[in-house]
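Quiz preparation item.
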């Protein structure tokens, strides 16, 4: 196989989802706490806007960057949330937030370059960095720091080959939220390296639990010329299957990113863009309702996991995951993942799916009902006492 193709990794959550579905099809009772997608339906007013767009005849291509009204609505919503001044020309609507990380790594990575990324972190960061030909340089997120990033540690990894640094808060898989002071320190440090770009994955920005605060890199104008922001509708509005996301690009990359879109997907599904517009401009109470449900379930997982033998769990502060420490069970993460799914019908993800630093951890998603979470915890307890 061509070496670049051989470098492509994957996202274990999708294979665990497939295996869970296979077991369910065989009649097994499987509780899925594996995949990271809201279990709520897309709010009805958003669905209606998508249907109306189709009825109104929005069947054709749209501008490659996305319809103007949607790009303006994204800029306005970011102004509302973070007082950020965004030129709608720098907003790119994409088929999923994930595409921003692929475009950023392919535009900036190449053989000989280095890209710094979090471990444990979303698995597609390392995969797409390798695919670009660049060398992935991990920085660790540790439990004793609440899984927050350490700005000094990241800055110490910069070399003359560094092109891009990736950060993610609130984070997948840890549920950690990085405090403002640490992000500010990183931003400040990076302004001294104006040739290095920063990609801030803010896909969970609306899922921050009481007591924590979301810090968007968009609230620091001094980094705008180096900043790429990844965000979208998947997690905030329960729209994973619509395939919608957006990138905020610095002026220096906006046109090239658009050219990549023209070379790949041409534009995002037209009706989905109208649904996205309704999501941003409509009633936001659905976002708060879902946030509260995730917060409640994260609390259930946190307390339940801490009561199990050999398991400890830091309190999740955002996103919708509990990342529990299983080193006291004397089992590896992969063993426990497989034992829980195959023998006890509970789908969760091994910490090692998110990088080497994930050994000793399992990721539980809060995207299931309170009852399902309680049953999964009871099954995990049985598994550990067997
Ligand atoms: N970034 C992180 C950290 C994620 O966890 C995900 C999805 O799981 C994404 C980006 C991509 O989201 P989407 O492509 O569905 O918008």
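Solution:
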């Amino acid at each position: 196989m061509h070496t670049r193709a051989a470098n492509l990794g994957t996202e274990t959550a999708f294979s665990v989802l497939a295996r869970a579905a296979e077991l369910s099809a065989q009649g097994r009772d499987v509780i899925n706490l594996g995949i990271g997608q809201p279990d709520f339906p897309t709010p009805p007013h958003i669905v209606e806007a998508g249907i109306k767009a189709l009825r109104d005849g929005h069947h054709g291509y749209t501008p490659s960057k996305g319809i103007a009204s949607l790009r303006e609505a994204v800029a306005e919503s970011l102004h509302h949330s973070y007082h950020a001044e965004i030129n709608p020309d720098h907003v790119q609507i994409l088929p999923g937030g994930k595409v921003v990380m692929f475009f950023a790594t392919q535009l900036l990575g190449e053989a000989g370059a280095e890209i710094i990324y979090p471990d444990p972190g979303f698995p597609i960061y390392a995969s797409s960095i390798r695919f670009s030909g660049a060398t992935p340089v991990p920085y660790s997120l540790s439990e004793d720091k609440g899984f927050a990033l350490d700005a000094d540690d990241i800055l110490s990894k910069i070399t003359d080959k560094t092109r891009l640094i990736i950060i993610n808060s609130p984070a997948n898989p840890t549920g950690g939220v990085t405090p403002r002071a640490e992000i500010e320190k990183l931003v400040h440090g990076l302004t001294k390296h104006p040739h290095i770009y920063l990609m801030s994955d803010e896909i969970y920005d609306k899922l921050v639990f009481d007591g924590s605060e979301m810090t968007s890199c968009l609230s620091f104008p001094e980094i705008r010329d180096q900043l790429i922001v990844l965000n979208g509708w998947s997690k905030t509005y329960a729209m994973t299957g619509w395939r919608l996301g957006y990138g905020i690009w610095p002026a220096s990359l906006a046109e090239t990113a658009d050219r990549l879109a023209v070379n790949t997907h041409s534009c995002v599904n037209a009706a989905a863009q109208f649904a996205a517009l309704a999501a941003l401009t409509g009633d936001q109470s659905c976002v708060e309702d879902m946030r509260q449900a995730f917060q409640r379930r994260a609390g259930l997982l946190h307390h339940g996991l801490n009561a199990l033998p050999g398991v400890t769990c830091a309190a999740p502060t955002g996103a919708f995951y509990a990342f529990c420490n299983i080193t006291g069970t004397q089992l590896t993460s992969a063993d426990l993942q497989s034992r829980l799914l195959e023998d006890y019908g509970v789908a969760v993800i091994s910490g090692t799916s998110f990088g080497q630093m994930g050994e000793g951890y399992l990721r539980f998603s809060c995207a299931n009902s309170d009852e399902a979470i309680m049953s999964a915890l009871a099954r995990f307890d049985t598994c550990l006492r067997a």
